[in-house]
Amino acid sequence: MTGQSTDHERTFGQWWDWKGEYKRVSIPALTALCVDAYRAAGVPPDDAAFLAEGAIDKTVQGDHARGVIYIPPQVRSIRSGRQDARAPIHVVQSRGASGLVAGGSKAIGRLVCRAGMRFAIDKAREHGIGLAAATGGAGLLTQYVTMAIDAGMIGVVMTQTGPCVAPLGGYTALLGNGPFAVGVPAARHDPVVLDMSFTQSSASGVLLAAEQGDRMPSGALLDSSGAPSTDPRDFRDVDRSKSPTEARGDGTLTALGNSHKGYAMIFLIGLLSSVLSDTAPAWDLAPGSASDGAVAGTLLIAIDPHAFGVADPPGAVDAFIDTVTTAPRREGVDEILYPGMRSQQLRRARRERGSVDVPVPQLDALLAMAAELGIEVAPLVTDE
Fold first, then answer.
1. Is 298:277 a contact under the CB 8 Å cutoff?
2. For residue 72, is it within any domain?
3. Is the pLDDT of residue 85 over 50?
4. Which residue, 48, 63, 299, 373, could crosslink 40 as a Cys pair with Cβ 3.0–4.6 Å?
5. What digits encode the pLDDT tens for the residues 139-176?
């Protein structure tokens, strides 16, 4: 398919979307290209697969603000030496069910966090619960709670990001946007998966809107003086060669609900993520800040539901889901969903088909990256 394809369904709650041309791409070929790119940059095979899979999974769900769009910039970052694909990652402290997992300042945060969730799962097998503080930003949180789910456990993750939110009543970006995720295994149903930030909009969605010259929904953004704005360029510039932290203006995202409740969650997630991992607060993660080499922190928790005497935890989750999703519906409502249900339906359907629609500029960027790295690319575009 060389023109506009039509399978653009996405998870609910995303106001942003790519409005240009798409091409339908083979998921196995796309995966191979991205894994090969990471490997060509010096990333070990297992780590390359992990890094590629998280981004591809977002693309497969139809979220083109947080999918493969970020692979070329990260590969460039690794090749330039800003990130070290082989930086050692160690458990530097362990006490009871908790511990600190650390890499150096150039370690890839997502790999440090993967080690952190592995540590938490091992501790949960012994103690019923495990908690790891990790010296690295988690990025795409669903991967870590999925690790816990695959181990038959509940996963919880919270992480720090660069500054993009002002304190309530202020206008200077000091806080991250409060990324938070929970995964709960079920039996008959897909797992419950919540992956969100505590701002009105995802920062990546704002960047995608800025790239296309779109406007934002009202109430999601403040400009540099703290006045409401619907122009995403007040928050981000449109240079995709920059990381999400670097590509920022002076505007700020608003807290979820434009309320003290959303602000309080952002405050606490940022506080705990940085203090317990002994890493930088959000304001020290801004480009040009005095804390050169500062890293974000993440908390990763695994909980063994069998540790509490429940006879059949996945069955109990199924029963909970059944009651909620079969509740009486308002007129015009076709289906009652639970967290993660829609994204997993889309993922399963597209992976069974073996293809996904990818924005043409993102596909072009991947092919340019492959050419730069000398990677032989299998046929990508498909009619299936």
1. yes
2. yes
3. yes
4. 373
5. 999 999 999 999 999 999 999 999 999 999 999 999 99
Does a structural domain hold residue 226? no
Q: Which residues contact 15 (CB under 8 A, 6 or more apart)?
A: 201, 205, 216, 217
Helix 109-127 to helix 142-150 angle, to the nearest 10 degrees?
A: 30
- Determine, yes or no, domain membership for 48: yes
CATH number reported for the structural domain that contains residue 355 in this entry: 1.10.1530.10
pTM of the model: 0.93
User: Phi, psi (5° rounding) for residue 174?
Assistant: -120, -25
CA angle in degrees (0–180, nearest 5) for 301-119-112: 90
Which structural domain range is residue 39 located in? 22-83+343-373
Residue 222 to residue 164: CA distance in whole angstroms = 10
The structural domain count of the chain equals: 1
E strand or H helix at 17, and its extent?
none
Helices (H) and strands (E) counted in the chain, each on its own, are: 10, 12
Partnered with residue 302 across adjacent β-strands are: 130, 155
Q: With a cut of 50, say whether residue 268 has pLDDT above it.
A: yes
